[in-house]
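hiii, so i know i said id send this last week but things got crazy w the move. better late than never?? heres the sequnce for the chain we talked about at the cafe, plus the structure i predicted for it. fair warning i was half asleep when i ran it
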Amino acid sequence: MDKVKKSHAEDNKRLAKNTVALYVRNAVTMPVALYVSRVLLKMLGVDDFGIYNVVGSIVILFSFMSTAMSSASQRFITYELGTGDMQSTNRVFCASFMAQIFIAVILIAIVEVFGYWFLNYKLNIPEGRLMAANYAFQFSIFAFAIRILQVPYEATVVANEKMTFFAYASVADSLMKLGLVFLLKLSDYDKLITYAALIAAESFLMWFVYRLYCKRHFSTCDFHIVRDKSLFKRLFSFTGWSLWGSGANVLTQQGFTFILNIFYGVAVNAAMGIANQINSAMNSFVGSFQTSYRPQIVKAYARNDYEHLNDLVFFTSKMSYCLMVLPTLLLIFNMPLVLNVWLSNPPPYAIQFCQMILICIIIDATTGSYNAAIMATGKIRNYQLAISASFFLDLVMSFLLIKAGVLPYLVLISRIATRGLFNMFIGLFFLKSMLLFRIKNYLRHVIAPIVAQLFIMVPVLSFFYGRYDSWTMLAISSLVVITLGFITIIYVVFNSQERSYAFGIFKNKWLAFRGVKK
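okay and structure toks below
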């Protein structure tokens, strides 16, 4: 028993270390990506920058199948690794690699035929730039194919929880892309073609780095031909149901965009577009934490360690919420200032749309571990059907709210109710039925403390909201979030064991900072 507890404690320490590594990764890659876009626009000019983006969009349009296969590779490699069977893990890696080759060939054929026709006969390319656009298109296809073949190696790194290397590789990738932009200054050749070629070369280099690292550190990455129909059937079945769920998600979200356009016009679409950008930025941070805990959840399931799996769902739900709630609340109550500084003249209703979408983010962060636990089982058909139904319910409710004449941003009440709360209960139902999950304990020990903390924080921030000018509100809300926020997390959200663990980490960091040896 002591040995098991020690192993779980080591898991928690590794989880904390990996989370920090991935947060540092995001802190570097996000601003670098934004700066690259700015410099690239200047270097290429508006026309060529637009061409590069539209050419890339053609390729990305067909990336959904590779994304679903990536999830399958991640799950199955991590599962086999959790069982401790290295031979079986190697077989899954080889099957995943073969499946990615198959997908790459199919997608390249489709993109070459459809993409070439669409680029040359349907898109509005400036006169004299069609040849350059075609070269950029071919280089983009090459880079796309290389990224597909990188998936099994990347999945192996994440499955082995080598997040430090994963973070370093991502940072190196971002910095190289930044360097490529400045290399364009040295080129006298067509800059659009040159940049597309450099990106393709950089993609190949990243694939080589991942391959080299995996070959040196993991014996499971030695490739050989696998002829296991049962394994391929499970891989593609998982991929198919993942595609069903992600397809329903994309379809209904695009439908929501069209509904807003039909009933409210492009100004409301612009406001929703701003909200979606904030949603993407915030989700990238919580996604870092989700990347770090998913392997542990899958491995716990593979070992039939359901007690630890339950504990992980409890802990990661609470930690995801804690990592997101304070910056999210700060943004919600300072959104007028944020948008005015960022955009100068934000579209009508943009403030309210962003505030509503941030509420969705808090719910999604809290419930992200449900998805990881259910996906760990591999039995995802009924779950994907259920959440797909909730996506379509969101679309129906949105339409009914619009017909009822509500203000545009209040349509997002439907998203909070369906994609947020309804999906939470769908996840809890499947967790209970598939993993003997204790819903009552979860509601009492996770949801109740979270609700209690919000009942303390929100009224206090609401009291100050609108009473002061924007900069004073920022100062006051920052003070409230830093002091009251951390106090309520420690003494309301955390239990005594989690509180002791947090204090222990802080104490060790403080002693290390002062140079005191234990």
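btw The two ends are 26 Å apart (CA to CA). thought thatd interest u
miss u guys!!
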